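Example record

Each entry pairs one chain with its bound ligand, zinc ion.
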Amino acid sequence: MKELIDLHCHTISSGHAYSSMEEMIRQAQNKNLRVIGFSDHGPEMPGSCHLYHFFNLSVVPREINGTIILKGVEANILDYNGTIDIPKEALERLDYAIASLHPPCFKSGTIDENTNAIIKVMENPYVKVIGHPDDSRYPLNYEKVVMAAKKNNVALEVNNSSLRSESFREGAQENIRKFLTLCKNYGVKAILGSDAHISFSVGDFSNCKRIINELNFPEELIVNYSKDAINELLEMEIL
Ligand SMILES: [Zn+2]
Ligand SMILES: [Zn+2]
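Structure tokens for the complex follow.
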């Protein structure tokens, strides 16, 4: 099956990514993606853009040469209560938020504290995806995380970049296997994300697919393959 969407893409506005929106859209078209979502890092990430970046995304057309453009953010989770670095006033102007744990913005606590941060952030109605919940530097109780994802209609991300051998994240293979196995058992949806920081990586899910195939993970539980699943996750008729 062909993926329709990549929601996790960083442009040069993130500060440590290297392509423009236009370059990334061109690659989305080369890969035959129907939808590309821009999720630059929230303002607490060193070198990322100001909050005004997110307020002003309405200047970006909804559709460019047949590709649907979604406007989002990869928000930084800041504490164990799931506070993020994007206020409601900005979130309500966006199509979605990914919420993630990142080393400069979040201090890893106990497994319960980290898990609480993720569960609380899922209760934020603007958060649709938990980005790369796969990093042993932030141990999580996956049983609780998967159940909370189901309850709050949030997708856990299988992050292609975490699975690169050069990734800074630790234990991704093993952690992704753990949460996908639970997702499979409980019928909870997951989403593939490239986490592209350069145009050529847009829509690259090759590492994700290796794990998906190994686990025999059901395609109907992968958001990227189904219009209905995409619309349901984003709570809008995008496709
Ligand atoms: Zn980044
Ligand atoms: Zn991230």
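Residues 1 and 180 are 19 Å apart (CA to CA).
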